[in-house]
Specification:
Largest sheet: 8 strands, parallel, barrel
Strand order of the largest sheet: 6-7-8-9-12-13-14-15
Bound molecules: zinc ion
Strand content: 5-15%
Radius of gyration: 24 Å
Number of domains: 3
Length: about 500
């Protein structure tokens, strides 16, 4: 009898059976491996690539390296690992810049009893991939291995986040993502916010009317003087508000429609999110109504929308603003989403916004998608701070040097002068940097510079060390993620009416 490799520490939960094949994660002295045991006659949709050994009961055990090919074969053999559409279920995106966080995310879902949330473990934007040196298929594969290792057995989605061009779409379609977040932000005309009535009419005349399948006159007939009945209130757009909405979002609408039509020309099964959260000013209710009803008119179905809400959703820190005003604002967005959809309201830059989760879930009645990303990278840094303080000090000093340049593309307000210096902190106090507002944001937005920093030999000086560290301290990292994400997920689990 040949001895079967067992799961090893922390890997036993990976054991799953489907049809008459069994799969689990194991490891040899150097690396993790996928073990597949099946009858010799078993036919897999995609054959696994590995070393087969005959067992004495007409079965074969194959030990497979964790390659892209084997990730694809595993998704084909174990159906719940293949990303699918999640529909209107309350959902959460766990963006993972380093690709090692999924096990911790799943521990948090279980600890928060939030397994009724539909999770998206693979979620990176093209911008993030450029900064981390990753690719859409690589991100998906990392999430697949993590979900498999942790024994996740429910539906998952995969979010191709903040896509801006049809080339972006193609790269994610090829990798079989299931959730496409279209970001038409570059086509939003923010000058409309301050434009005069004459300027607004001019902007509207210049919209791509052919792509919008209409004329300025149609716009007037569709909306002017009309009262929109929501559940508890009416919206009565004034002509100027309507012109402003069209001037601001008309080009963005045409771009979203173009992206959607491109997606439908492929064979991928998908759901769509539309995000305008990275605009200069909050999305008004009239703008939301106009944008969503025009998407409907253009035949563009979407499962979630990310308006820019009132107040500030800065990276890595709690909501900044008046919570009552936020609730009043979101209540109307939620009514519009129910009347025109229903579709979900998406909370982008959603990590660490502990004071708004309960409000959002209650007002949107569970029709919410939470999107987090950089906060898992910060938990990786917290783990480094706890165990390898000198590495964290070096990363933090480097991050401070690059903050001024790197903050440009983000909504952040951290000031270097308010963030403690790493050298001024004892080893024991160092992890507390990850709780300090300014230091958090500085570390959050500099991830691209940190991960791309090279030493004299061209080696990624921090990234390689961090990845090796996190692989060696997998459990400590997962424990930090669990602790941090339980706080995120509990309000969604507790207030989920669906
Ligand atoms: Zn966003």
């Amino acid at each position: 009898m040949i001895e079967l490799p067992s799961g090893g520490a922390g890997l036993h939960s990976s054991h799953v059976q489907h049809n008459d094949a069994t799969f689990w994660m194991t490891q040899d002295a150097h690396r993790k491996l996928l073990a597949v045991r099946a009858p010799t006659t078993h036919h897999f949709p995609i054959p696994f690539d590995g070393e087969p050994r005959a067992l004495n009961d007409n079965r074969v055990l194959t030990l497979c390296p964790l390659t892209a090919h084997n990730a694809r074969a595993l998704r084909a053999a174990v159906p719940w690992l293949k990303p699918v559409r999640l529909g209107l279920q309350t959902s959460a995106g766990f963006g993972d810049r380093l690709g090692l966080a999924t096990v911790g995310h799943i521990r948090a879902l279980r600890a928060a009893r939030a397994e009724n949330l539909a999770p998206i473990f693979a979620q990176q934007s093209i911008r993030e991939n450029a900064r981390t040196g990753r690719t859409p298929p690589g991100v998906l594969d990392d999430a697949t291995w993590g979900a498999f290792q942790a024994g996740w057995k429910s539906a998952v989605g995969a979010d191709a986040d903040h896509l801006k061009t049809t080339d972006d779409l193609d790269a994610c379609v090829a990798a079989e993502y299931s959730f496409y977040t279209i970001d038409p932000g570059e086509y939003v005309n923010s000058a409309a916010d301050r434009a005069s009535a004459t300027e607004l009419r001019h902007f509207v005349d210049l919209l791509p009317w052919q792509e919008l399948e209409g004329t300025p006159r149609d716009l007037a007939t569709r909306y002017a003087g009309k009262t929109v009945r929501l559940e508890t209130r009416n919206l009565k757009p004034e002509t100027d508000d309507l012109l402003r909405a069209a001037a601001k979002y008309g080009r963005a609408l045409a771009h979203v429609a173009k992206m959607y039509r491109h997606l439908t020309s492929t064979s991928v099964e998908f759901e769509l999110e539309v995000s305008v959260d990275e605009t200069e000013t909050p999305t008004t209710h009239v703008e939301h109504y106009y944008f969503a009803s025009e998407l409907k008119r253009l035949g563009v179905p979407f499962i979630s929308l990310a308006p820019r809400y009132s107040g500030r959703f800065e990276k890595g820190v709690d909501y900044i603003g008046d919570l009552d005003a936020f609730e009043r604002d979101l209540a109307v967005h939620a009514e519009i989403a129910r009347c025109l959809g229903p579709y979900k309201l998406s909370l982008h830059s959603g990590s660490d916004k502990f004071s708004v989760y309960e409000i959002a879930m209650r007002q949107a009645r569970g029709l919410v998608h939470l999107k987090t990303a950089g906060t898992s990278y910060l938990e990786a840094l917290r783990t480094v701070a706890q165990i390898e303080p000198e590495l964290l000090r070096a990363i933090y000093a480097f991050a401070r040097e690059h903050y001024a340049a790197d903050r440009a593309t983000y909504h952040v307000s951290a000031q270097l002068a308010r963030a403690p210096l790493g050298d001024a902190l004892s080893d024991a106090d160092l992890p507390a940097l990850l709780n300090q507002f300014d230091a958090r944001q500085i570390l959050h937005v500099t991830y691209g510079s940190v991960l791309n920093a090279r030493d004299a030999t061209g080696k990624a000086r921090f990234k390689e060390e961090m990845m090796a560290f996190l692989r060696a301290n997998e459990d400590a990292y997962a424990a930090n993620l669990e602790k941090h994400f339980v706080r995120h997920l509990k309000p969604f689990a507790a207030n989920n009416p669906l």
